[in-house]
Design goal:
With 247 residues, the protein is of the alpha/beta class. The protein has 8 helices and 9 strands.
Length: 247
């Protein structure tokens, strides 16, 4: 079973090496690393070319943001299972892909837990996104899978499509509402930390971006003919409180 790991990058010279080595060091060897670069102008491409595995795929050209790059990575992936590792993140352990592959069984996808870390020190833990066994009803309570930990079979993307560019900030959430909630795709939960992710994503940069993300999340339900669920706004921040106390 081949696993395609998609990394999107743009001027990521300070972090991309750790990301590449995190993939190269995995004990599971049937891995295809697909790197989609947005046309970096710093030393990112030199670092990638000097350290990527022989089987890695590198595409560097301008794109329309990270979700456009995600779709490009999916299109160019040859793996049976596809997941994402951002250019400033690393895997939690060297055997986590092996554990995911051993655990997925016949499920269409699998996911785990996520550690948020300090921007300047990826070993400095800030909070833990501890997930739970999949139940689509939890979406009503503001719950969602930690996207960087989600690995899906390629046919899921072929059947239901990729990431909608109508959602510049929350396309990952819209994708999960569409695939996991609307179409009832049941993923398996592996109670293991999959990824170390640096704090500071687009949807949490400032109040304005957070508000935009909230609006996009509401629209994700309407766009999929599921109606509006404004209760999400109240419950999702509350659901994150325990993340600062679990690690």
């Amino acid at each position: 079973m081949k696993v395609s790991i998609i990394t999107t990058s743009f001027n990521s010279e300070s972090t991309i090496l750790d990301t590449i080595l995190s993939v190269n060091n995995q004990t599971y060897k049937n891995i295809e690393h697909v790197i989609i670069d947005g046309g970096s102008t710093d030393n990112t491409l030199d670092i990638i070319n000097a350290n990527k595995s022989k089987s890695a795929i590198l595409i560097s050209e301008r794109d329309n943001g990270c979700y456009d790059a995600f779709n490009k990575g999916i299109k160019n992936s040859n793996g049976d299972i596809i997941g994402f590792l951002h250019s400033d993140d690393i895997f939690y352990s060297d055997d986590i892909i092996e554990k995911l592959c051993q655990s997925i069984g016949e499920a269409p996808g699998i996911y785990g837990d996520l550690i948020y870390t300090n921007q300047n020190n990826i070993n400095d833990k800030i909070r833990l996104w501890k997930s739970r066994k999949f139940n689509k009803k939890n979406f009503y309570l503001g719950w969602m899978i930690a996207h960087p930990t989600m690995y899906l079979r390629k046919e899921i993307y072929e059947i239901y499509g990729g990431y909608s560019l109508k959602f510049p900030i929350a396309a990952d959430y819209e994708f999960m509402v569409r695939v996991l909630f609307k179409h009832n795709i049941q993923c398996k939960y592996l109670p293991e930390i999959v990824t170390r992710m640096r704090e500071g994503g687009q949807s949490s940069n400032n109040f304005k971006d957070r508000l935009k993300a909230q609006v996009e999340c509401w629209y994700a339900w309407k766009n999929n003919d599921l109606g509006f669920f404004p209760i999400w706004t109240l419950l999702k921040p509350i659901s994150k409180i325990n993340q600062w106390f679990l690690h």
